[in-house]
Amino acid sequence: MDNKLKTRPIVAREAGLMPRGVERTSFTNFLFWILPWTALLCFGVYAIYLCLADGLWHTNMDNRFAFGLWIFLDLTVIALGAGAFFTGFLLYILRRKELKAVINSAVVIGLICYSGAVSILMVDVGQPLRAWFTFWHPNTHSMLTEVTFCLTCYLTVLIIEYIPIVLKNRQLRQIPKFLVFEFELHKLMPVLAGIGTFLSFFHQGSLGGLFGVLRGRPFAFREELGIWPSTFFLFVLSAAAAGPSFVMLTTWLVQKISKKQLVKPEVMQFLGKVSGILLIFYIMLKSVDTLIWINSTSPSEGFPAFEFYARKSFGTWILLTEIIAFGLVPALMLLNKKLRARPVFLYGAGLLVCCGIMLNRFVMTIQTLALPTLPFDEFMSYIPSWEEAAAFLAVIAYGVVLYSFTFRYATLFPQERELQQIQRG
Amino acid sequence: MFPFVYEFHWTPGHIIFLGVFFSVFGMIIVTLINAMLRSRKDFRFKKAGAILWKTDFEDLPKFARACRHEFTGEAEHRVCDNGFNCGTCEAHQTFLAQQKAEINSDISQSDIFGFTMPPDRMYHRGHTWVKKMEHGAGSDTDDGTYIVGIDDFGNRLIGKPERVSLSEIGSRIEANTAGFIFEKAGAHLRILSPISGEVIEHGGNDKEWYLKVKADDSTNGMAHLLRGAEIRPWITREMERLQMSLATSKIGFTLADGGELLPDMNRHYPNVDWDAVWGEMFLEA
Prior knowledge:
heterodimer; A: mainly alpha; Formate dehydrogenase/DMSO reductase fold; two-stranded antiparallel ribbon; 2 strands; 71% helix; B: alpha+beta; CATH 2.40.50.100; 6-stranded antiparallel β-sheet; 3-stranded antiparallel β-sheet; 16% strand
C-alpha cells in the first residue's frame, strides 16, 4: 500500500489533502497565486529586519508621531478582526446556527488580523526581546497594559480555535488522536467563544479608551462614563459592527476569486443585518458623543471644537464623511430588507462600513497627533517610510497566504459542497 | 505580576486587574487540558470510530441525511440529526406505531431499477447489508451470527476494489464505523459496518459477503437498518443523489430515467472525480 502511495503523482497526493467533493484550482495555478504574495511577504520581512536590526530610525515616526501607520492599521485590523469574536458570540452563545457557515472563515480572519497586529506591535516597540516587561511589571493604571494582556490572551484563544480547523483536514483526521482531540476541542468552543467575547470587549474598549484619556490631546479627550471614557464604548460597538461586515466582504471576495458560491445568500444578508443594527446604534451614540464634545468637553479644555477642523487636510468633511457617508448611509442600506437582498447594496454597504472603521481609526491616531495643542505648536504632517509600508504589506501578504492555504486544505465553508451540488443539479 | 516581583503592590487595582487576568488565563489553560483529558478518555474507550461517524454525519449535505420516513411518505422533508440511529429516535418509534400495514408488508421483489436487492436482508444507508446466517435446513439455531456485505448499488458504483482491508478476526466493530476499507484508483474508502459485534470470519470477493459477525443484539442493534418497502424509495433517492454527485462540469452526462447503472462505473467515466462521488455515496465526508 505504501509503495502505491509513493508512486502516485505528486498532484494526486496533493489532491488527497483537499476536502472531498469541492473543486480547487490546479496546484500550478495555486503556486502562481501564492508566489507574488510570498515575494511581498519576504520584502516586508526584510523591512522588519532593518527596523529590528538597525533601529526605528528606519521609520518616519518621531516624538510627535509616536503612533504612525502601524498603530493606525493595527487598530483597523483589530476592529475588522472583531468578526471572529462577534460571529462566535452569535453562534455559540446566542445560538444563531446559520453562522456555522462562516465561523471557520471568521476565525481565520481573526487569527490573521490579531497575529498580524501583534507582530507589527513587536516591531513597533523597537525592543521585542523586552516585550515580557509589560507582563512582568504591569502598570495596572494603563489602558495599554489592559490592551496587551487582552490581546495576548485573545490571540491564544484564536490559535486554539484555529487548531480544530487544521485538524479537520482530510488526511490529519485519519489520525485517530487528532480526530478525537479536534472533536473534544470543538465541543468546548462555547467556552472559548465566551472568553473571546470577554477579552474582545476589554481590548477593543481599551484601545479606544487610551485615546479618550489623553487630556493633553483635547481632540481625542472625552468625558468619563463610569471609569472609562466614552471612546471605550464607541470602539467596542464600532468593532462589533464592522466585524460581521468584514467577514461578509471577505467571503464575497473569496467567492469571486474562486468563482464558486460558498455560502447561502441568507447568511450574508444576516451578517449584513447584524452589522446594520449595531452600526445604527453606534452612529447614534457617536453623534451624541460628538455633540457633547463640541458643546462641552472641548470648550471646557479651552479649545473651540471647530478650530480642530480649520486645517485644510482635516476639515469638517472628514467628520461628516465618517458619520454620514460611512455610517448612516450603509446602516440604512443594511437595515432595509429589500436593499439588503441586492448584492450591490449589501456588499457596497459592507465596504462603506469597513472604510468607516478605517477612517475612524485614522482620525483617532493620525489626526489626533497632527493637530497642535500648545500655543507655539503647529500642525504637522507625517508620511510613513517605505519600511513602515513594507512591514504592513507583509501582514497583508501573510494573511493572504495563510487564508489561501487554509481555504485549499481545510473546510472553511461547510456549505460549499452542498451548494456546488445544487449548482450542478 | 506576582507579589515577589518588584513594584507589585497590594492595592485594589493590582489585585482586581491581575485577578481577572489570571482567571481568564486559567480558564483558557483548563479548557485546553480538559479537551486533552477528554480525548485521552475517548481514545482509551476506543470511541474514535464513533466520533468519526458523528463528525462525518454532521458534514453530510441535508439531502443525504433525509429521514427514512421521508422515503415512505410518512414524513415530509425530515432531516436526521441523530446519526441514523433510529433505535434512540423518539420520532421513529412514533412513526412505527402509526405505520400503515402496507409499509410493513412483506416485499418479495428483489429487482429495483436493475439492482438486485434481495428482501431477505436489511440494508444500511452506507450501502452495506446484513443477513442472518442460515444454519441449514431444519435448524432452528439462532446464535446471533450475521453476514455483512456490500449491496448491488455499492458494488456497481465501486466495481472491483484493488485492495480490501477487513477488520481483524476477533476484533469488535461498531455500527456506523469502518467495517472494511476499499482502495481503488488512489482513493481510500471506509465502508460502514451495519451492525455492532465481533468479527468471527472473513469473506471476500469470491463470496457474496465480507464479514461474518457475532452481533451484540439481534433486535435493538438493527433498528436503523432499512428493510421491506423502504428499500425501493431509498434506492430512488440514492439514484438522485448519485445523479447530483456525477453532474460535474466535466462529465457532460446525466443518468436517464429508467436506465440501469453500469457495473464498475469509474472505468467508463474516467473524468469524474470518483473519490468525491464514492465519498458522497458511502457517507464519508
